[in-house]
């Protein structure tokens, strides 16, 4: 069984609020999920990926692979 984090529940940590910067960068989410939460996968919704460049998506996939956290 693969236990995963639904990234949408981390939206308030990922998205800039009023005059505040995000607490967790999307590129750091796989490592955070693996090391801090002990989960082995990450479900990303299209809402979080809207407007993200192809290069950033590739970096996210690479970091996910390095962290041992499947990116779904």
Characterise this structure:
Strands 1-2-3 form a three-stranded parallel sheet. It has helices at residues 11-14, 29-35, 46-49, 54-67, and strands at residues 4-6, 41-43, 70-71. The longest helix has 14 residues, at 54-67. The mean pLDDT is 88. With 72 residues, it is α/β, with parallel strands linked by helices.
Summarize the structure in short.
The chain is of the alpha/beta class. Helix content is 40%, strand content 11%. A 3-stranded parallel β-sheet has the order 1-2-3.
Give the tags:
single chain; 72 residues; alpha/beta; 3-stranded parallel sheet; 40% helix; globular
Mean residue pLDDT: 88
Cα-atom radius of gyration: 12 Å
User: Strand arrangement, largest sheet?
Assistant: 1-2-3
Q: Helicity range of the residues?
A: 40-55%
Main beta sheet, described?
Answer: 3 strands, parallel
Order of helices and strands: EHHEHHE
Structure summary, number of beta strands: 3
Low-confidence stretches: none
Shape: globular
N- to C-terminal separation?
14 Å
Quote the beta fraction. 5-15%
Class by SSE composition: alpha/beta
């Amino acid at each position: 069984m693969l236990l995963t984090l639904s990234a949408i529940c981390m939206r308030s940590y990922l998205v800039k609020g009023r005059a505040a910067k995000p607490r967790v960068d999307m590129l750091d989410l796989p490592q955070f999920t693996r090391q801090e939460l002990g989960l082995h996968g990450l479900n990303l919704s299209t809402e979080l990926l809207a407007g993200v460049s192809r290069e950033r998506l590739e970096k996210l996939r690479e970091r996910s692979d390095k962290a041992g956290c499947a990116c779904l």
